[in-house]
Amino acid sequence: MKKNTVTLTDNRTGKTYEYNILDAARGPSVVDIRTFFQDTGMFTFDPGYTSTASCKSTITFIDGEKGELRYRGIPIEKLAKEHTYMETCFLLLNERLPSIDEHKEFDLELRHRAFLHEGLRQLFNAFPDNAHPMATLSAAVTALASFYREHLELDTEEEYQAMARRIIAKIPTIAAFSYRHSLGIPFIQPDIDLYFTRNFLTMMRAYPGGKMHLGLHGHEEIKEVEVRALDTIFTLHADHEQNASTTVVRNVASTGAHPYVAIASGISALWGRAHGGANESVIAQLEMIGSVENIDTFIARAKDPNDNFRLMGFGHRVYKNFDPRARILKHLQDELRIELGLNTELMAIARKIEEIALSDEYFISRNLYPNIDFYTGIILTALQIPKSMFTPIFVIGRTVGWISQLIEFKKDKSSKIARPRQLYTGK
Ligand code: ACO
Questions:
Q1: Closest residue to atom 14 of ligand 1, CA basis
Q2: Three-state DSSP class for 182?
Q3: What is the CA radius of gyration of the chain?
Q4: Taking the complete model, does pTM exceed 0.90, yes or no?
Q5: Pocket of ligand 1 (CB under 6 A)
Q6: How far out from the chain centre does Cα 201 lie?
Q7: Is 373 one of the catalytic residues?
Q8: Mutational pocket test of ligand 1: of 280, 314, 378, the residue with most ligand atoms within 8 Å of the beta carbon
Q9: What is the structure's pLDDT at 217?
Q10: Which is it for strands 218-219 and 214-215: parallel, antiparallel or unpaired?
Q11: Of the listed 231, 239, 323, 373, which one is catalytic?
Q12: Tens digits of per-residue pLDDT, 151-178?
């Protein structure tokens, strides 16, 4: 019988070292090298962690080759089609979908917890006009830690749940206030009569007094199809295993810092264009292309090896087949085009680029499919959400994932402070 191990030979000395292979429930096995330094006196070198599993996790599974994504074992397609974002939050936090009563109780508690302390509201005034909502959001979440110092010490399940529910409920309010501050318009308070996602859209769009835009036919209410679309976007962003911002959240939590400070660090990490900031760049690029007639020039630039230009919203480090989240959003985009009657030049450009890229040898041979950011940018534009709020919307969806990963980390007795070593090449 073959042993479930890997043997490494140091060819300088001929010494061999044997390491156990740990089999995953799904996906690649890992080599357990925790004693590698102790055994060999050497470190492993893996900048960017392309071959490193940084933790054990039971939360999210991705198969990049097959284009598969599951939360707690449930395929993302099923969650997007049959469940709300609130149910998805409950699932991520509790490892199972809620019963009807649990769902009601969870939803109700989050509505009650959506309000911000009056003292925290003052913080927004410290930011300049036109401050990017991501900067305000990250700072306000750090400030939140000072209002809830009791969450520094977490012991019972109730304490973990209260900490998690509080931040998930407050993030949309902070995001909406950050946006309204950037425009210099009055904040709209949360409304406990409204579902999470409708409440967020209302806090973004409403006039003082909670009234909707006045149109020719009276007040133009937020349509159910818009709420559903945004709810799906939140679900699709809810978690994505050990990506850059989640790794940051775990690493900050590993020092014993307050959980909300760890989340604020995740928000900062997400802001970069190579991560959550990409959705903003997709629309900026479509606006730069400007018209369907100009597309060929930009496609030629994307294919030119001597040009750094890249088609934003195409390609993915992990998905080398279609991003399953993008497939869901593509259908949603088609639905919205019909239901909201949207036929803007921007959508026409996006459709044409997608059509060309999906049939062009350059993109096919490199597995460059449209990713989630390509469609979120288009859909959020259709929902009248300004570009500066695209990444904050990603934050709203992802907060539950960060919190679930943080709780998993804190409950795991074998967790250690994150402290990698280096290959020193200096003087
Ligand atoms: N447009 C044109 N060519 C591209 C693109 C693109 N968007 N993406 C990759 N390529 C080409 C590269 O030039 C390279 O070509 P070559 O083999 O001839 O040199 C090949 O495809 C492989 O590219 P890599 O950069 O090695 O692929 P990697 O997996 O490292 O990068 C990434 C993935 C960063 C997402 C990349 O595809 C990219 O920059 N895309 C545009 C930005 C974007 O949409 N980011 C959002 C990602 S999704 C998310 O974060 C939620």
A1: 366
A2: helix
A3: 23
A4: yes
A5: 274-275, 278, 302, 310-317, 366, 368, 371-373
A6: 18
A7: yes
A8: 314
A9: 67
A10: antiparallel
A11: 373
A12: 999 999 999 999 999 999 999 999 999 9
Domains of the chain and any CATH numbers: 5-69 (2.20.28.60), 74-427 (1.10.580.10)
Whose CA is closest to 324, among 30, 60, 29? Answer: 60
Helix, coil or strand: residue 73? coil
* Sequential DSSP letters for 80-100: HHH--HHHHHHHHHHSS---H
For the question of residue 331 being annotated catalytic, the response is no
| Alpha-carbon separation of residue 92 from 99, 286, 405 (angstroms) | 14, 34, 9
Both tokens of residue 400? 């539950």
d(CA 39, CA 2): 23
- For 49, 131, 269, 311, the CA distances from 279, given in Å and listed in that order, are 24, 19, 15, 12
Q: Is pLDDT above 80 for 361?
A: yes
Tell me the pLDDT tens digit for each residue of 59-69. Answer: 999 999 999 99
Q: Among residues 83, 181, 240, 316, which one is catalytic?
A: 316
Structure confidence at residue 99 (pLDDT): 98
42: closest CA among 377, 301, 392, 422? Answer: 422
Percent residues over pLDDT 90 in the chain: 81
Q: Output 224-228 pairs: Cβ under 8 A, ≥24 positions apart.
A: 225/335, 225/336, 225/339, 225/340, 226/201, 226/340, 226/383, 227/195, 227/197, 227/198, 227/201
Cα–Cα nearest to 90, from 112, 77, 74? 74
